[in-house]
Records
---
Amino acid sequence: MPPDEALRQAPLLAQLSDQQLERLRAKAQIVQVQAGQWLFTQNDPAEFFYFVHSGQIRLFRLSAEGEEKIIELIGAGQTFAEALMFMGTGRYPVCAAALVPTELVAIDATDFTAMLRESPETCFALLGSLSQRLHALIAEIDNLALHSASVRFARWLIAELPIDTDELTLAWPKSTLASRLTIKPETWSRITRRLSEQQVIAVHGQVIRVLDRKALQQLGDSGDPALIPARQARKTG
Amino acid sequence: MPPDEALRQAPLLAQLSDQQLERLRAKAQIVQVQAGQWLFTQNDPAEFFYFVHSGQIRLFRLSAEGEEKIIELIGAGQTFAEALMFMGTGRYPVCAAALVPTELVAIDATDFTAMLRESPETCFALLGSLSQRLHALIAEIDNLALHSASVRFARWLIAELPIDTDELTLAWPKSTLASRLTIKPETWSRITRRLSEQQVIAVHGQVIRVLDRKALQQLGDSGDPALIPARQARKTG
């Protein structure tokens, strides 16, 4: 059975007391599945929700023709089928199979909800933990979107820059240029601010001066988050 | 005051009954802030959490030197400062200011938690709603990561492809190539499967045949999610 720290990776288990985790363990089972092996199938009664300790699980639906439609991949540290428990639907709406050898903890849904009914404080702690995780994920998506917009911006700037100088005078309003790059004007502002801080460019009114052409080129080439650093998601409530 | 459908965009409000939303409205206030105007400052008592109806809010911390460190941007349909309420911390840990003219609903945190204490069913519904939203966001991040890996794959394949033929015979094991592109072997498999389904490539053992060079080129050029379609995040529990 994974140690408490491992279980507490999941937002739904993060805020449980030691006693509550102990109670959960007493009713929980370790499940090992081989690569390709099924864990449950669509419409099976949903008596458990699962924590993935190691490996990866594929959730999918089967069409009438037997074709698989992947719904979600669940990695280590994540739980799945827990929303079902709260919604009282009673049956798994998808199939689950292992992509690689996978170890899971099957958590008794009935006992888990009983534990929550006994303690509104625990419900609140879980609501807080899930809310925080939501904020962190939204920030991460925002960050990924910013990176991809930055790559477009860098490529555009390299393409527009005259050969004989490092200065580009913008012939159009920022909002028009932003729209051509399919980014929002505020994203344009964030990108130019970020690149100015990093001394890659300097902006003076309608003039963009490229200070570090190599860094700009790297950003334009990159498929990886490189130049534009990840803004850390913090506990903001 | 925004209509019920607008408020229900937020996972925390999505599952409230009409009566509960009515009660929330009775205690809620509409707040309008201009671009640049502050909503609250670090250490203010946290009596409300907020729903953004329109506009955008910047959450930030101030360093001792007065420098701003952006923590998070909150857009329309999102709530913020709700985790605080569940954690009972009592004070905002950040400052909040509007980036653009913004309309918010200030929701009475004391009354909201009282409403939840009266109804474990409501707590459960909110836990379910937040869990579902978490799954959807994780799927979205996974998808964005898959897209960026696909762009790297497409560029690599274009670069490696001999000029006189559309076939590339892999000289290295998949795992080695995947590692050179900093993607996981299972991601390599997902990308080649997806591109095969889209008839962009065909894979036979160690041979990749390019069926649609233009589509591959577009994918390699793209900063936008284009060729690799978004896998829909569904209600999976």
Note: The domain at 4-118 of chain A is CATH 2.60.120.10 (Jelly Rolls).
---
Amino acid sequence: MYDRIKGFRDFYPPEMAARREVIDTVEDAAQRYGFREIGTPALEDAAMYADKSGEEILEELYSFEDKGGRDVALTPELTPTVARMVVARQQALSKPIKWVSTRPFWRYEQVQQGRFREFYQTNIDVFGSREPIADAEVLAVAADALDALGLTGEDFEFRVSHRDVLGALLDTFEADVDRRAAIRAVDKRAKVEEAAYIDMLVDAGLGIDQARQFDEVLVAGTDDLGAVREFATSETLDAALDNLEAVLDAAADLGVSEQCNLSLTTARGLDYYTGVVFECFDSTGEVSRAVFGGGRYDDLIESFGGPPTPAVGVAPGHATLGLLCQRAGVWPEESIATDYYVLQVGDTRPVAARIARDLRERGHVVETDLSDRGFGGQLDYADSINSETVVIVGEQDLANDEVTIKDMASGDQTQVPVEAFPGAHDRPTFDDFA
Amino acid sequence: MYDRIKGFRDFYPPEMAARREVIDTVEDAAQRYGFREIGTPALEDAAMYADKSGEEILEELYSFEDKGGRDVALTPELTPTVARMVVARQQALSKPIKWVSTRPFWRYEQVQQGRFREFYQTNIDVFGSREPIADAEVLAVAADALDALGLTGEDFEFRVSHRDVLGALLDTFEADVDRRAAIRAVDKRAKVEEAAYIDMLVDAGLGIDQARQFDEVLVAGTDDLGAVREFATSETLDAALDNLEAVLDAAADLGVSEQCNLSLTTARGLDYYTGVVFECFDSTGEVSRAVFGGGRYDDLIESFGGPPTPAVGVAPGHATLGLLCQRAGVWPEESIATDYYVLQVGDTRPVAARIARDLRERGHVVETDLSDRGFGGQLDYADSINSETVVIVGEQDLANDEVTIKDMASGDQTQVPVEAFPGAHDRPTFDDFA
């Protein structure tokens, strides 16, 4: 007997049915906006990750040397892969490029609630537009997906910020600040003690008073961007604030203003973000980590050797999204559904097979006996797979050219001429013949 | 600039759309028979493969030691994984267990036409039934899937054989035969010179005359199983022949007799098959390898530490299936489809956004401008994404409370009151307003 690997999961049919419903709902929201599905490899050149984030990132990945001596890694995220794909066909692809896909990713990290070593994300990205409407469309897709799942503004909020607001604010301090380190500190703000957070800002180069001042303006600016404009001005800060306001305006036009809240203390951990960033949070705070996040990464394609290509995206992760749905009571029922069970008694297989075939041709889920069971055993099995209707094809009935239609919810049944079933009915039930 | 890894593929939207259509069609065929989707991990304990096939198998896999010192392998096939999952929940799962899933697998092997290092399969398996109807149902699902793809009996055939017919026949020779080696020789029969094939049988323990005799009876038995019964009798041979005939009879009841041809020279390469085996071949011979195959593997679950659990399955591979579809001219068109483009001119975004939202709520694919393009640029873009209908929301029209509906195929257009669009129409087109 073998065990599955820690942090990896098996999904049996009832749970998988619920997961599939959620995945389909999220993908469908993106597809309605014209995002097109792509297919991507599970392995990439390990240098693709090490070059950006340093060799030490490989310790957190499933990286190894393949039989041909290549250093490869199981993809921990999709963004570098789609950047590579955009660069590879940069001439042929018309802009904007709008892509969606759902697949597993892998990281060798600590397993905890909602965090696994194999985890599934739906990635939704726009390449080739730097307009605020592109950021807003990504927010709108995410909001539509959550809405279609049955979640409301009571359940979640998008906290929206802007990397350049943080960066330009930091530049207004007379200090030699490591901007990346300071932004990472902001990203950790809600996860660590205040003193530790201030220490991180000081480590990034701010004086202790500057760190406190910086945090105060982030908090004040979350209520009102005017507070930031009053605190300092610079060309980049003004441009960033204007861009952030334009994105929120465009989001309002797209009908998602209620879900979006300004939050300058939101930073996102990844280094490659450049403009608007946002995170989805559980409004009740029961799912304490960000459910998912996204943002603008205008420099990544160029850093992969492509032409300057602005980009913005979001990537709902299905583990935390599932926790949010469960908390809000909208996780789909974990069960399997069957339209018909065709119950065969005696030497009636050709007729039973014909009926099953006719029902399947109409698109229904139809099971028949594979286990040589008797009447009672088959009825129990039909019940166990939640059959709505059972069609009983028995020798005695057939002698009268009839079959029996049984409604499993009520237990009601009736005989119908075998030639009349399914007849002209698209989805015949007991009621059609009673 | 990074390259993708050899033997791995990127799928851009037009090709992915065609692939998705084929995958959905195959899965849908299985789901109509009540096969339920499962989700499975990409990595497994490497011992799961090495224990069955020897350490040398790991050279053909993407196997490595993870950061925690585990010997792991990227899954080269699904069967060991589903066997592990059946064993893990053997008490809770009601029989028969009918599972389907589509996902990538990985093997470190030579790349050639229709063979990649990352390849996609739809696995369809039944556990817990040893009845011939279960084998027949698996054949019927495969036949229904190919039929739904537009393939006919002119395009493909299933060559059906039985492992125990081969085994029991070998037992009738007075020789010390390595059965696995002999069966592997039969599997190679069509791929090597006749002399090499006979040599392989001799290496497996048959005398040279016995090898020729064995092959003659396989060929004669392919026309008529009676020839096998005449050549030799034994309890296991008779039982195997009876089982093979019962499966073909059941397949006929399920309406797939035309697609199934007896072929005792079909053996399947994998060691774990125990009963009926079959391979799908291109009837024209243009796709020279088997398109896919399947069969019965009654001993695998027990060898994984579970209770005796008969099993039968099939696994269409999407690379060779794609070649067959292309050869037969039924590969789906590689293009993207868009229902509506909402073209916005001037300061009309709130109205354009409302119209786009209403159309998306009706389930349609709707794009709008993300690139601040003018009228002509937007119309070109709408054309490039194959929009069926363009809704033009212009300032002048709006001053008259109208929008323009343009049919992209004909170029015809008409004005309609903005409040009437989309109105009560589920899928409004130019024709609804002309």
Note: The mean pLDDT of chain A is 94.
